[in-house]
Amino acid sequence: MNFKKPAGFGIRFVASIIDFLIISSIFGIVFYMINGNYSIEQTEEFTFQALYTLYLTITPILWGGYVIGKKICKVKIKRFNDDEKPTILNMIIREVVGKYIIVLATFGISVLVSELMVILREDKRAIHDFISGTYVNKE
Is 83 exposed, middle or buried (0-12, 13-18, 19+ CB in 10 A)? Predict the structure, then answer.
């Protein structure tokens, strides 16, 4: 496969941090408006995790491969075979299976393996990229 500019670990990490900060802030504001209090520990609850995974799954489909952090960092998710935007199936496999279920099943070891893959592989693809048929490209 001919990769234009695969995004490396650093830029992907920064994009993830930006996403988490923005989405957890929005969630915190809404939660505060509903309940009158907020704690950072609420980001560990199932409701936040489910909503955050839903955001990471749906937004790239609607926004052509971007989530907020990736848009800011000018990287996007593309399908591996044809360089097009990801489909709903690509994103469900990538986010729900690759980044949630496999991480739980391996007690987090798959996160470390994926990080090493992005750092060491020429195509910069992680486990969730392989199973979903995607990669992350720099603009």
Answer: middle
At residue 42, what is the residue type?
Answer: Q
Residue pair 27/51 in contact by the 8 Å Cβ criterion? yes
The DSSP bridge partners found for residue 136 are: 77
Instruction: Return the amino acid letter for 134.
Output: T
SS (H, E, C) 59-112: HHHHCCCCCHHHHHHCEEEEECCCCCCCCHHHHHHHHHHHHHHHHHHCCCHHHH
- Predicted confidence at residue 35, as pLDDT, reads 80
Whole-structure pTM value: 0.89
For residues 77 and 137, give the distance between their C-alpha atoms in angstroms, rounded to a whole number: 6
Q: What is the pLDDT of residues 76-91, one digit of tens each?
A: 999 999 999 999 999 9
C-alpha span between 128 and 102 (Å, rounded): 9
Please answer whether residues 99 and 133 qualify as being in contact, where contact means their C-beta atoms are separated by less than 8 angstroms.
no
Enter the tokens of residue 3: 């990769």
Angstrom distance (rounded) from CA 69 to CA 62:
15
